TrEMBL record:
EC number(s) on file: 1.2.1.38
Pathway where it operates: Amino-acid biosynthesis; L-arginine biosynthesis; N(2)-acetyl-L-ornithine from L-glutamate: step 3/4
Semialdehyde dehydrogenase NAD-binding domain location: 3-141
The name this protein goes by in its record: N-acetyl-gamma-glutamyl-phosphate reductase
Keyword Flavoprotein listed: no
Annotated GO CC locations: cytoplasm
Task performed by this protein: Catalyzes the NADPH-dependent reduction of N-acetyl-5-glutamyl phosphate to yield N-acetyl-L-glutamate 5-semialdehyde.
């Protein structure tokens, strides 16, 4: 059994990790930390775990965490990088669900996150944990940077086109997210009276996920890719729908076949039949990304639709997938959940 610890278990990502891990056949949960809730039984905060988990939150203690085989960080940005070096030195593997190790350039990190990077010396060894791109590297990694939710949906949607060099000009990512993407903290914009019966764009001048997406697409293409990324908040709890636009003048390419072949061996990416329109509810609670490709009016503009659950494929589920790879387990272990309907 893999002995697992979670740092920061009180947020939505933390409880989603717990929901997945308590059903994982190869995991033994050892410790779940929370400074504010230390001593409180986890099931008292999250009653869905009652009967599945008999642990209480505890104060973060690096010596306790060192007894684990792997530690997940489900913490605000800037926390993991303070503790990861000591854990790695002790032989503990780490999956960070925050952004601390996603950007390879510390100057870019500081620009977008407003703080200097605390451990530039190990930043270079962090593996970006999008398994559909870096599966082999994740298997050998001791530190994995779990991708953000928007970057997961956008990159998976654009990847086949970018990898084949089919795009001309800049890309556009028009993305919508449920309110849980803002986290469990109290925010005015997340209140029911503010978010319900409302729809808005935000972060248009620049969202923190923009450099992450650009970095991933540039690596796939071998050169920089122009991208306009506009996120929106929708009055639903969970889910991301990304409507992606690319100029692909070459009409000879069978785009449906291209996507089906690229993701043929990816169990968590579902390329839907031509003409489909994936819905967020079709992936709710699952670790699956559903994709559909369109070329409206047979023009140069290709539209890719990409739908994920922001808390699963966009966060906790992908983190468990990375753990499975790091320990040589079945990639689907603990992730076979069917999406919830209605």
């Amino acid at each position: 059994m893999i002995k697992v610890g979670i740092v920061g278990g009180t947020g939505y990502t933390g409880v989603e990790l717990l929901r997945l891990l308590v059903q994982h056949p190869d995991v033994q949960l050892e410790v779940i930390t929370s400074r504010s809730e230390a001593g409180l039984p986890v099931a008292d905060m999250y009653p869905n775990l009652r009967g599945h988990l008999d642990l209480a939150f505890s104060q973060p203690d690096v010596n306790t965490l060192k007894q684990c085989d792997l530690v997940f960080f489900a913490t605000p940005n800037g926390i993991a990088m303070q503790q990861v070096p000591e854990l790695l030195e002790a032989g503990v593997k780490v999956v960070d669900l925050a952004a601390d190790f996603r950007l390879s350039d510390p100057a870019v990190w500081e620009k977008w996150y407003g703080m200097p990077h605390a451990c530039e010396n190990i930043l270079a060894e962090a593996v970006y944990g999008l398994p559909e791109i870096n599966r082999a590297k994740v298997r050998e990694a001791r530190l994995v940077a779990n991708p953000g939710c928007y970057p997961t949906a956008v990159q998976l949607g654009f990847l086949p086109l970018v990898e084949q060099g089919l795009i001309r000009g800049d890309l556009v990512a028009d993305c919508k997210s449920g309110v849980s993407g803002a986290g469990r903290q109290t925010h005015l914009g997340s209140l029911l009276c503010e978010a319900s019966e409302n729809f808005k764009a935000y972060g248009v001048p620049g969202h923190r996920h923009l450099p992450e997406i650009r970095q991933g697409l540039a690596r796939a293409a071998g050169h920089e890719i122009g991208l306009t990324f506009v996120p929106h908040l929708t009055p639903m709890i969970r889910g991301i729908h990304a409507t992606l636009y690319a100029q692909v003048p070459d009409r000879s390419v069978d785009l449906q076949a291209l996507y089906e072949q690229r993701y043929a061996n990816e169990v968590f990416v579902d390329v839907m039949p031509a003409g489909s329109h994936p819905e967020t509810r079709s992936v709710k609670g699952s670790n699956r990304c559903r994709i559909a490709i369109h070329r409206p009016q047979d023009g140069d503009t290709v539209v890719i639709l990409s739908a994920i659950d922001n808390l699963v494929k966009g966060a906790a589920g992908q983190a468990v997938h990375n753990m499975n790879l790091m320990f040589g387990l079945d990639e689907q272990a603990g992730l076979g959940h069917v999406a919830l309907l209605p």
